[in-house]
Amino acid sequence: MRRAVSNLTRFCGGSGFITPGRAPRTATVVMSVSRLSSTSSGRLDVSGIYPPIATPFNKDESIAFDKLTENMQKWNKIAFGGYVVQGSNGEYVYQTAEERIKVVEHVVKAAAPGKVILAGSGCESTRDTIEMTNRMADVGADAALVVTPSYYKGGMHNRALISHFTKVADDSKIPILLYSVPGNTGIDLDPEVIIVLSCHPNIIGLKDSGGDIAKLAHLVISTQSNDFQIMAGSAGFLLPAYLIGCVGGVCGAANMLGQELCDLEQLYKQGKLKEATNLQQRIVAPNACVTKRFGVPGLKVAMEWFGYYGGPVRSPLQPITSEQEEIMQTVFKLSGFIH
Amino acid sequence: MRRAVSNLTRFCGGSGFITPGRAPRTATVVMSVSRLSSTSSGRLDVSGIYPPIATPFNKDESIAFDKLTENMQKWNKIAFGGYVVQGSNGEYVYQTAEERIKVVEHVVKAAAPGKVILAGSGCESTRDTIEMTNRMADVGADAALVVTPSYYKGGMHNRALISHFTKVADDSKIPILLYSVPGNTGIDLDPEVIIVLSCHPNIIGLKDSGGDIAKLAHLVISTQSNDFQIMAGSAGFLLPAYLIGCVGGVCGAANMLGQELCDLEQLYKQGKLKEATNLQQRIVAPNACVTKRFGVPGLKVAMEWFGYYGGPVRSPLQPITSEQEEIMQTVFKLSGFIH
Amino acid sequence: MRRAVSNLTRFCGGSGFITPGRAPRTATVVMSVSRLSSTSSGRLDVSGIYPPIATPFNKDESIAFDKLTENMQKWNKIAFGGYVVQGSNGEYVYQTAEERIKVVEHVVKAAAPGKVILAGSGCESTRDTIEMTNRMADVGADAALVVTPSYYKGGMHNRALISHFTKVADDSKIPILLYSVPGNTGIDLDPEVIIVLSCHPNIIGLKDSGGDIAKLAHLVISTQSNDFQIMAGSAGFLLPAYLIGCVGGVCGAANMLGQELCDLEQLYKQGKLKEATNLQQRIVAPNACVTKRFGVPGLKVAMEWFGYYGGPVRSPLQPITSEQEEIMQTVFKLSGFIH
Amino acid sequence: MRRAVSNLTRFCGGSGFITPGRAPRTATVVMSVSRLSSTSSGRLDVSGIYPPIATPFNKDESIAFDKLTENMQKWNKIAFGGYVVQGSNGEYVYQTAEERIKVVEHVVKAAAPGKVILAGSGCESTRDTIEMTNRMADVGADAALVVTPSYYKGGMHNRALISHFTKVADDSKIPILLYSVPGNTGIDLDPEVIIVLSCHPNIIGLKDSGGDIAKLAHLVISTQSNDFQIMAGSAGFLLPAYLIGCVGGVCGAANMLGQELCDLEQLYKQGKLKEATNLQQRIVAPNACVTKRFGVPGLKVAMEWFGYYGGPVRSPLQPITSEQEEIMQTVFKLSGFIH
């Protein structure tokens, strides 16, 4: 039986979150990822810029594995921390369980050495999430990005979410990052839930796409004793996120502006704040185009401009209109990213 | 290639929605459902009260097929129009594709003769939805209830939704009912979309759980020339829905108050408005308990009070607390349904 | 000192809501309204159809009192229960305190004998609301329609709203109706709050514009022992509202379709449900045009078609575009209300 | 007649926004504010930290002008850029027109020399807003903070908002800052609207309380050629806002943590990013308590801890409960601001 999580506000400590009488599965795993770097407390280090890679499809909507390879060969030349595969930008909800695994497996193989592979393994049910997570681990994912379940909105209260993530983390072979993306799910992970879950030895971080920078600052300070790694979920607030203590970003725009985002990271780290700010300001509008404004259909069109394969989206998503494409072009031109 | 749906406001007519050069698959299907009644224009008649049946689970969260059989033996004695299987109350999002099919197959076999089986076949992608619909048809579903896709909220504009439902209806072996449940999906099907889709020969109706009675009245009058059947998605507004022209209701509360809801239907049809109104008023608060207020966990507890097997929900849904159960009991007592 | 309202769920009864040691001000008032009819328990009877009258403005946005008189001469010929003045359709938020009073005074004088005058007296603060209510009473309003305060949304919890309405009702010279209009205010009055407040001797009813018919049915049954009168806040669900026990409607569309709405009321009362339903169905779409869809600017344009003075709206409201006017015309024509 | 604003996307330029044949009223005004500093283009300089001051009330809810004086004597010792009076934290919606003017007049007199006085003059109607703005100018306000009208949400589209702010700016004797506070109004000013309005010679800036840092970065770059000054509307994201180019902050928390916020500003300006970040992180949680979480009632309680007069709120706002006060104390203690 699993230990009840009865009190949201209790402090982390004591015998910990792990089910008594059972060794945490993570122990062995941490050792097997020795090719990757670790944080000071020995956790998988997920810092840096990660593109949440778009899944390429052929005209008939089947997965274009060859195009995925080609894209990755280009991305491998950029100083990314690693890849997010099967995130929202990967249209994971439109893929069967088998497809989700296969794409992860393919990305693991195509990634350059040293790149961390974060696999989006969230499903609506806890049991499916656990199974998906471990199957993704089996094909080589280094950690799993677990989105909040969201269908029964009234039922996804804090107690339910803590229980869900705790069970998944208890039973997962690889470390877990929480994933909050209220724009898609309608569920915004409560800071109290995140702080409680940051105490779990197998929950190592958070990707937050909500964009509330004050929330992120509060989380950084509230979880710092747990070596908890917080990642900005969008390029729109990457620099402010670094400033208040985030360790990196999972940025849709990195699918085509990966070098620029890594440059931004470097400018920040070198203390060149003015240049970093200028770059950040230029990135906001193009980033909005490939995220909130035109979504994955916009993202895939913009990828083509930068030499990547974008290709079609899966139905019911629709391609953007020619008017929308024109707006995108104007925005990218005004920002100086295309000519 | 499929015919483009270029104009939301065009009137239905002309060469129709069906892909040219291809016979609609429904022709043969209509004949095969001869055990069921038809509307004046020959469509499957889905009028009446339908419980959207809860999927029973064992303690280990596996499906309790024996309990499902037992519940159905009791429900079969009530004058339901049929059953909705794998709707929101069936926790369909927590089941694998295989489980979803198996439960439909089981319900088809356990249903009394003449009961219409409406199977919830919606998936996020169009291709998965078509496959699921036809697999459910293969195991005996009479029609499919297709929920709106909802993950990429910004992308689920009217154009995308019309395209999705048109493709599914084109390729489905059985008739389709649209399913709008904004409380769960965050997507409220626009009347314009519904009116356009009501012209499709294989889209025979709508289940609307939004509760906007004025919207329903408008839809009834706007789709009446298409023999389009509109069903109330909750017992909370069943009588008003009948009054303004709906043909029936898919009511979560019918899992335990099925007889009472069929009584309400009869009182309305017999013109006993005063008695119908009294019953409707008594049903509102208990219905709210097993839907909006406490959801499926509340529904399953209340089922036990009426001799049905409720059992556990699947995680991450959590059982209701004892305080919540007390509130539910008070409400059901005050309304006179338990003592 | 005022009696604390400490418990939301307590039953009505005991020494009542009125401050001990002080006679309720309403006693004398009830006597003075003898020209109007009363309910069985002696309360002011507010049943029937009420137009929430549009405030006519001249081109320079000053109030066109002469046009108001002309409109009222036409409305006086219709079997309305009375008038709502300074409701949302009256653009009350765009008028100074003095203007709000003057328009009420004018309507009181211009109304035919026997018409009940419900005056919208809500302000953000409790003290301003009390003063406004009593000043409107002084110029002849029979009862006040008090909208929920809404600016500090986080602070307008149930405790605050109960306190506000209780203080207003305690100190008002005339009876109070609660007014919930979430589309404008973002605040949807909780049924629990309404039920508690229905026990107050000076709170005689509710106008609810939210359109949740199940909520209304629940409120009718839960407040029936308090002689509490519930009014539909829109013509879009007038017949269903009557059916489940509402006593009337405050319907924006009554500004131009007053006769038709009174006909609907009569058809319902005569048991001619089929005709009533037909009329209700026809009214939904035009009603949506002059409420949710195009608001007061749409309402004022449509009034002109029916021989009333509509005139300009006050800035920042903008006139509807010619395209929007065409849509409205099509809708009114298809519904058979104009030719 | 006023020049029509027909095209949201046109570039600023040409003969400008001002009504032809009429001199802008601001010309003379700019000269009269010579005691204050100006930006490079000669506009009033509103950079720095501004407390949006709480309006102190006596027990009977009348305005406690003596307490206001005392508070200001303390605030005057802090290096604030100036004061915001009659903002959301000033409970302006609960004050009569006369009271709003009197409080502004009082603050003007009590402010130390060189402090900029920004007066909240927004009303629902354009005409009332213009009158209020000019009356506040007459009693000495240096600029007006004009909140978005919000009652008719459906009618407050971009066209209406551009028209409103243009008319107000055209007719105002003092410069205008736009004020977007979606948490209270439900209206989030669209970047396109802001960019268009930034071209108006009498609209000099924006206070944005929405907290979307990416939006602010985009606005900074898009309006920089217009010498447009953007202010963070909360202390929760003050440092990130400075980083991406905001000129200051209007921070509720400055009512009691004014020195700390001015310290934060200085640390940022001196390039001491690490110290600034630490301070920013500590401020987030206490700031949330006195804004989103417990609102003005929380703010006024916390003010007392720091030697200011807080006093009661006006009804219908309610004092916080003792449990809420305890939570606030814990948060302020953990953050090290009280002991």
Please give a structural write-up:
4 copies of one chain form a homotetramer. The first copy, chain A, is α/β, with parallel strands linked by helices. Helix content of chain A is 44%, strand content 10%. The first copy, chain A, has 13 helices and 8 strands. An 8-stranded parallel sheet of chain A has the order 1-8-7-6-5-4-3-2. The model of chain A is unreliable at 1-11 and 13-33 (pLDDT under 50).
Write down the overall geometry of chain A.
globular
Overall radius of gyration of chain A: 19 Å
- Number of alpha- plus pi-helical segments of chain A: 13
Q: What value does the average pLDDT of chain A take?
A: 91
Oligomerization: homotetramer
Largest sheet of chain A: 8 strands, parallel
**Which pair of chains forms the biggest interface, and how many residues does each contribute?**
A-B, 40 and 40 residues
Q: Whole-Å distance between the termini of chain A?
A: 61 Å
Determine the strand fraction of chain A and express it as a percent band. Answer: 5-15%
| Range of helix content of chain A | 40-55%
SSE sequence of chain A, one letter per element: HEHEHEHEHEHHEHEHEHHHH
What is the number of beta strands of chain A? Answer: 8
Structural class of chain A: alpha/beta
Strand order of the largest sheet of chain A: 1-8-7-6-5-4-3-2
Low-confidence stretches of chain A: 1-11, 13-33
Structure keywords:
alpha/beta; 44% helix; 8-stranded parallel beta sheet; disordered N terminus; homotetramer; 339 residues
How are the SSEs placed, and which strands pair?
The structure is a homotetramer of 339-residue chains.
Chain A lengths: L25 H7 L15 E3 L14 H11 L6 E4 L11 H14 L5 E5 L5 H13 L4 E5 L10 H14 L4 E5 L1 H4 L5 H7 L5 E6 L4 H11 L5 E4 L5 H6 L4 E3 L3 H16 L3 H21 L1 H11 L16 H13 L5
